[in-house]
User: What shape does this take?
Amino acid sequence: GGGEGGGGEGGGVRVGSSGQGGGGDPPGGSGQVLIEYDVDGSQEWVEAANLRPEPPPTASELPWLSRLAKGELAELWYEGGWWEVILQARAGSKFQVLAARYNKIHSATAAELRPWWQRDEAGAWCYTLQRKTRTAEQWRAALLASQSRCGELSLVAHPPPLPASVYLYSTTGSK
Assistant: This one.
């Protein structure tokens, strides 16, 4: 699992703290958490700063991909996690995206993409389309209003999320 820039999640990961699950003390000291992968049960200590909560689901009725401009960020479902990518081009129902950190180009379907979710200063989830950053609720209102003004759009709408996707989540407990 994992993602570029600490922003990826997925692959069935459970999070505990140094006082849970018999994991012992973190090798790097405080500020680390023990994660366990559902796939093989392996565990590793990671910096808490590299984890983030699961972002909200992207509503399937919103045509967010039709507004994604060349050069803007999205996330690609790849090898069990969400990875930061940059839109390079569109070709029919395929999207050419670049994982800049790895200088790797991928061909993706709409089902494999979602907005590049970030948190604003107030902690609300937001994403950027056409150089405008808004919260999920603000985008929902704007995109649905655009659909109603234009009638039925023949634009690419984001399909339902991939089935059986398991996201990173945080658990808290007392020592």
Summary: Residues 1-11, 18-22, 152-175 have pLDDT under 50 and may be disordered. The helical segments are 64-67, 136-150. The chain has two helices and eleven strands.
